[in-house]
């Protein structure tokens, strides 16, 4: 079978497209999950990568779990309650740990439906932009289940607890305009422009020094659960590292000399 992810690279930007249009890019096979985890491992090791763009092919971003497998208690939904628990822990729950904790910025370009685990996957990114055709739902309750992939932690941090409660308790689907109003996405664009806009944003981010991007993202992540005094200590340590990089010196010189900076990621 063809890989779940179509992976392309242009300069410092990696674009990964989920490629199962026949299932609306449902995320339900262990091999699919492993591909995402392996990609994250590769990016962590490759210091030349600055941005990851995640999107879907055809008309969907990701439809979440395969409901047919749920009905048949097959695939990752097979087995006893204890086996099913381990299936979640050893499968889909590895994705938020790998993707959310990436040091490089992640952009979710939501081209269509992001439902259930698909919405939670989008929330693992740092920035979400979407097509005007995009739809979003934290729909687990409508299937009599709960967010098993970290959605109860992710969604409130993206849109705030009151709106996350509303989406999780109703399971209702919201459109792109409502997603923008909720703060779930940063931008809504025509479907034909989504890829171009996502790549343009990735280029603007990738124009900055790699070390500064990675350290800044780590501070933003750590700041979500650290006390201010602890974060200030970490910030001081990271800043000391940043001040002693070649790219910092180049940025300062370029600013003073009123010219574009040329970074070497050193």
Explain this structure to me?
The relative contact order is 0.11. The chain is of the alpha/beta class and 266 residues long. It has two domains: 5-206, 2-enoyl-CoA Hydratase, Chain A, domain 1 (Alpha-Beta Complex); 210-257, Lyase 2-enoyl-coa Hydratase, Chain  A, domain 2. It starts with a strand and ends in a 9-residue tail after the last helix. It has helices spanning 30-45, 67-72, 81-90, 94-99, 117-123, 151-159, 161-170, 176-182, 194-206, 210-222, 228-243, 246-257, and strands at residues 5-10, 13-18, 51-56, 60-62, 106-110, 113-115, 127-131, 135-137, 173-175, 187-189. It is built from twelve helices and ten strands. α1 links the parallel β2 and β3 (51-56). The strands form two sheets. It has a six-stranded mixed beta sheet with strand order 1-2-3-5-7-10, sandwiched between helices.
Keywords for this entry:
single chain; 2-enoyl-CoA Hydratase, Chain A, domain 1; Lyase 2-enoyl-coa Hydratase, Chain  A, domain 2; six-stranded mixed sheet; 47% helix; 16% strand
SS element count, helices: 12
Strand content: 15-25%
The total strand number stands at: 10
| CATH-assigned homologous superfamily of the largest domain | 2-enoyl-CoA Hydratase, Chain A, domain 1
Oligomer: single chain
Radius of gyration: 19 Å
Structural class: alpha/beta
So what's the CATH class of the largest domain? Answer: Alpha Beta
Alpha carbon gap, first and last residue: 40 Å
**Major sheet description:** 6 strands, mixed
Q: In a nutshell, what does this entry contain?
A:
47% of the residues lie in helices and 16% in strands. The protein has 266 residues and is an alpha/beta fold.
